[in-house]
Design goal:
The chain is mainly α. 56% of the residues lie in helices and 0% in strands.
Length: 98
């Protein structure tokens, strides 16, 4: 008989906030994208991670895509999310890039 204990279970698959690598230069944009995600989630009555994950936001902050086509190269953004949130994401990126 096999008994699972806390010692034998693997760690949670979730990443902690500290494990998301965001360059200092990208931090203001990352935080602005997090605020946008929180607003979009509240409007849609969804948890923020459904909009996109911190990993996706970090990638957006680093890549700084300029159009919807470039959003397709970002992890976690498919056609549906780009259609729903792409304009808002790009507007926030543009505000912090200018």
């Amino acid at each position: 008989m096999r008994v699972a204990t806390k010692e034998t279970r693997s760690k949670s698959k979730r990443q902690s906030k500290s494990s998301i690598a965001v360059a200092d230069a990208d931090r203001p944009l990352f935080e602005a994208l997090r605020a946008l995600r929180l607003r979009l989630a509240a409007e849609a009555k969804l948890p923020p991670y459904i909009i996109c994950t911190d990993v996706t936001l970090a990638e957006l902050a680093a890549a700084r895509p300029v159009d919807a086509q470039a959003l397709h190269g970002i992890t976690g953004l498919g056609n549906s999310k780009i259609a729903r949130y792409g304009t808002a994401l790009l507007a926030t990126i543009t505000e912090h890039t200018a």
